[in-house]
Each structure stands twice: as structure tokens, then as C-alpha cells.
Write a structure and sequence with these properties.
The complex is a heterotrimer. Chain A is an all-alpha fold. Chain A contains six helices and no strands. The longest helix of chain A has 44 residues. Chain C contains one helix and no strands. The chains are: A mainly alpha, B mainly alpha, C mainly alpha.
């Protein structure tokens, strides 16, 4: 029994069909509980007022926006090394999800920044790096759509994803160098240190993060299934034209 | 290899395409920005480093799709792929040729345009130095982007979308060098980082570009 | 039931609104395209199954 068995499209379709309903249910549960808890049952922060509630959307989506790119990078590497089609299709499936998460992080950040920093947008390193990340997602998606042959597209996007990852990291440090930021540091992993995030916010936040992770996995599974079907569909249509 | 370099340079100059166009575009940027921003010398002096770098970057972008597209269409890229030089070498030479006909002329005319934008005196030297150190990276990154989209019909817009985010670190450090140079502060840190990016890009990206070309020629 | 959001009500509500709208749109698009591709594939598979059965 090896992990690579799931790279067989048929096996993947079987397993994912079984897993998906549970995944979707759990996603709904986690997100529902987390967001309702966060929205209705958390107190106001003494400095930020009620805007602290935005954290339950902002932090999970920002985390998953980056993690989605990392997942695409890993899937692309697997495709390049082991030529498993499911892997390439999963990378393709993840990109729009990652882009949406990036957009959510940017929009919620702007809406939070307006009352707190007094501006919708500041050319802060984190914000700028996220905008650049969004551009990378756009380029990646556009390249997938532009190249007609599916295997060529998978190869090219995989190479682009690898090079893009390096440059995304470089950009992250370049913008840090370029401008000192307004954005506070992440406090998620600072429990137990000084100035941690208060437990009243921490617990629902963790639930929301789990919800976003599950949402990402569920959406990627759904989209990968669709991509596999679309690939089979175009293969069948091609065979029909030949006959 | 030398023959390939000479051929590419000659084609670029003779066909009248990329060579003059990029420079003219650069000139236009330097003329249009003051028209849009207003003629106050202080304002212009402040934004001159950024404008010159963005202008150089966009001018470089204009001629990128010519690096491989013409050779791909008439089949000479297939010949180059089976030639005794490795494809990585072909990419490096073509990127070098692109730099010779765009990056180098841009670097040379930049000080002239800097006069139009009222760049402060000490900035001129650093403008030339930063462009010399940075434009090779622009050409190599551009060659990688061009290799990705070489099989795509009308890939020009896609090429810009792919390449411009990759230009971000070069732009940031390049403009920073000029900005610091113009205000007379220490420039060595951004300059070294800029040169480091160029060195890394020149060393590694030809391999990625050659891989992309092989996929496209399959 | 509705918590008192104070003077930041607009920011909080619009963040939740915009984010949920984007998520719902993403899920709906995924769902819709998935269902469409599944239906088309079923059609083509059925057609080809008929064709191969009818041939000999």
C-alpha cells in the first residue's frame, strides 16, 4: 500500500467520492461554528472595537492563500518528477481557490485598515507582497488557459510555479527592505510568549483556520474531480472525431 | 555561439523592430511623465529614479516576444535545439543578444533622459551602474517568460502578465540604488542585492527557459 | 441577537459580506462547472457505448 496509488485517476475518483461528502460536511460545520462564534459571541477589543471580528476571516484566508501556493508547488514538483496527471490537475484546481483566498485577505485587510490605520491601502511590505502573490496566481491561471495541449500546459505551469515561488520569496524580502511596515507581526504562534492573542479570540480563530483548511481541501478535491472528468471528456470527443 | 550572437544582434537591428522601438518608448515615458505630473523640479527629482527604472523595464518588455517567437515560427528554433550547442547555451546567448540591443542602449541613454526628469547630480553615476547591474536580469527573466509562451498564439499580453511580477525584486533594488545615490546615502546594500539577483537569474534561469522550450518544441 | 458593532459596523459587516460572497461564488462556480462536466461526460460515454454496441 503506497501513497502513489492515489495518483491513479480511477482510484482517486473512487476515494475522493467517498471522502468528499464528509469533507464538505465537516467544512460547513467548522466554518459555521467558527464564524458564528467569531461574529456573535466574541467581545470587542479595547483598542480595535468590533473590527477585531474581521480577524476570523482575514487570518485564515491569508494563511491559506500562501499555503495554497505551496501546495501547488509540491504538486507541480510531483508532476515533473513522477508524471502523475492527478497531481498536475490538482495544482491547476488549487489556483483559483488560492486566488480567491488572496482576494479575501486583501479586501478584509483594506476594510479593517480603513478605520484602524486610517487608510484602505498602505504600501506596507505584507500588503504589497500579497498583491504580488495575487499577480502570480493570475499569471499561473492565465498560462493554464492559454496553452492548448494539456500535458504541455502542465509542464509549463509547473516550471512557472517553481520559478515563481523563488521570485515570490525574493519579492517578499525585497519589499521588506523597501518599506518598513504598518502591519503587525503574526501572533498566532506566539501563545505563551508576551503579547499573545487573547484566548477569547484564539479558540474561535483556530476553529476558523481549520474551517478554511477543510474548505480548501474540499474545493481542491471537487475541482480536481472536475478536471479529471474534463480531461476524459476531451479525450473521448477527440476519439469520436477520429472515428 | 558567436555566429548565433551576431545573427541575433543583426536581425534585431536590421528588422527595425525591437531596437529603435524600445528606446523610443523609453523617451516617450520620460516625456509623458512630466506632462502628467507637472513641471515642478522638486517633484520630478523625487520621482525620477522610479520613473527611469519603470520606463527601462517596460521598454525591455516590448521586445521580449521577439526573442524566440520568430525563430519558433520559421522552424530555426528546432534546428537550434538539435545543434551541438546545448539549448541552455542558446537561451543564454539569445538573452545576451537581447540585452545588447535593449538593456545596453537603455543604460546609455538613461542619463540623457535623467536630465529631462531633473535627477539630482550624484544620482547619474548610480543610475548607470544600477541599470548595468540590473538590465541583464531583465533580459534573462524575459527570455524565460518568452520561452514559456512561445507556443501561444498572440502571447504578448500573457507574457507581460507572467514577466512583470518576476521583475519586482529587480525594480525595487534598482530604483532604491538610484534613490539612495541621488540623496547621497550608502548604496552598497541594494546594489549588492541587485547584482545578486542578476547573477542568480543569469546562472539559473537559462536552465528553466531551456526546459520550457523543450516542452514547447515537443 | 445581533451584536452591537458600534461605530465600526460598516467595516465588519462589509468584510463578512464581501468574504462570504466571494466564498459562495467560488463554491457555486466549482459546483456548477463540476455538474456540467459530469453531465457532458455521461452523455458522451452513453453515446459512445451505444455506438460500439451497434457496430458489429
Amino acid at each position: 500500500m503506497s501513497l502513489w496509488e492515489y495518483a491513479n485517476p480511477k482510484k482517486f475518483m473512487q476515494v475522493s467520492a467517498g471522502v468528499l461528502p464528509w469533507m464538505a460536511g465537516l467544512t460547513g460545520l467548522c466554518l459555521g461554528v467558527g464564524l458564528i462564534w467569531g461574529f456573535f459571541f466574541t467581545p470587542d477589543d479595547f483598542r480595535q472595537g468590533s473590527t477585531v471580528k474581521i480577524i476570523f476571516l482575514h487570518v485564515p484566508s491569508a494563511m491559506m492563500a500562501i499555503n495554497a501556493w505551496v501546495m501547488m508547488l509540491v504538486a507541480s514538483l510531483i508532476w515533473l518528477v513522477r508524471r502523475h496527471h492527478v497531481s498536475a490537475l490538482a495544482a491547476r484546481a488549487a489556483a483559483p481557490v488560492g486566488l480567491t483566498f488572496t482576494a479575501i485577505a486583501l479586501v478584509t485587510g483594506a476594510l479593517w485598515g480603513q478605520p484602524m490605520w486610517g487608510t484602505w491601502w498602505a504600501w506596507d511590505p505584507r500588503l504589497t507582497a500579497f498583491l504580488i502573490l495575487a499577480l502570480f496566481y493570475l499569471g499561473y491561471i492565465a498560462l493554464w488557459q492559454a496553452v492548448e495541449d494539456p500535458d504541455t500546459a502542465a509542464d509549463l505551469t509547473a516550471v512557472m510555479c517553481m520559478v515563481g515561488s523563488v521570485f515570490a520569496l525574493l519579492s517578499r524580502y525585497a519589499v521588506k527592505f523597501w518599506n518598513q511596515g504598518l502591519h503587525q507581526d503574526s501572533t498566532i504562534l506566539k501563545v505563551g510568549e508576551k503579547d499573545p492573542i487573547a484566548p477569547v479570540f484564539y479558540v474561535p480563530l483556530v476553529v476558523c483556520i481549520f474551517g478554511f483548511v477543510l474548505l480548501f481541501v474540499a474545493l481542491v478535491l471537487m475541482r480536481t474531480r472536475t478536471e479529471i472528468r474534463a480531461r476524459r471528456l476531451s479525450a473521448l470527443l477527440a476519439r469520436e472525431r477520429l472515428a | 555561439m558567436k555566429a548565433l550572437l551576431l545573427r541575433d544582434v543583426r536581425l534585431a537591428i536590421r528588422a527595425g523592430g525591437g531596437f529603435g522601438l524600445g528606446l523610443a518608448f523609453f523617451l516617450l515615458v520620460a516625456v509623458l511623465v512630466p506632462l502628467g505630473v507637472g513641471p515642478e523640479p522638486a517633484t520630478l527629482a523625487k520621482i525620477a529614479p522610479g520613473i527611469l527604472w519603470v520606463g527601462a523595464l517596460l521598454a525591455c518588455l516590448l521586445s521580449l516576444d521577439r526573442i524566440f517567437a520568430l525563430d519558433f515560427e520559421d522552424g530555426s528554433l528546432d534546428l537550434l535545439a538539435t545543434a551541438p550547442i546545448p539549448l541552455e547555451g542558446v537561451v543564454a546567448i539569445k538573452a545576451f543578444a537581447h540585452w545588447l540591443v535593449t538593456g545596453l542602449p537603455l543604460t546609455l541613454v538613461a542619463p540623457v533622459l535623467a536630465v529631462l526628469l531633473n535627477l539630482p547630480g550624484p544620482g547619474y553615476l548610480w543610475l548607470v551602474v544600477s541599470l548595468l547591474a540590473g538590465t541583464p536580469a531583465l533580459s534573462v527573466i524575459g527570455a524565460f517568460g518568452a520561452a514559456l509562451v512561445v507556443g501561444v498564439k498572440r502571447g504578448g499580453l500573457l507574457l507581460s502578465l507572467l514577466v512583470l511580477p518576476l521583475y519586482v525584486p529587480t525594480l525595487i533594488f534598482g530604483a532604491e540604488v538610484v534613490k539612495r545615490g541621488a540623496s547621497g546615502t550608502e548604496v552598497s546594500v541594494p546594489l549588492l542585492l541587485l547584482a545578486g539577483i542578476t547573477a542568480g537569474a543569469v546562472a539559473l534561469l537559462p536552465f528553466a527557459a531551456a526546459a520550457a522550450l523543450r516542452v514547447n518544441l515537443r | 441577537m445581533m451584536p452591537d458593532l458600534g461605530r465600526y459596523a460598516v467595516a465588519v459587516l462589509s468584510s463578512y459580506g464581501a468574504s462570504l460572497a466571494m466564498l459562495v461564488a467560488l463554491v457555486a462556480l466549482t459546483w456548477w462547472r463540476g455538474a456540467r462536466v459530469k453531465r457532458q461526460l455521461a452523455e458522451v460515454e452513453a453515446r459512445q457505448a451505444r455506438a460500439t454496441k451497434g457496430e458489429p
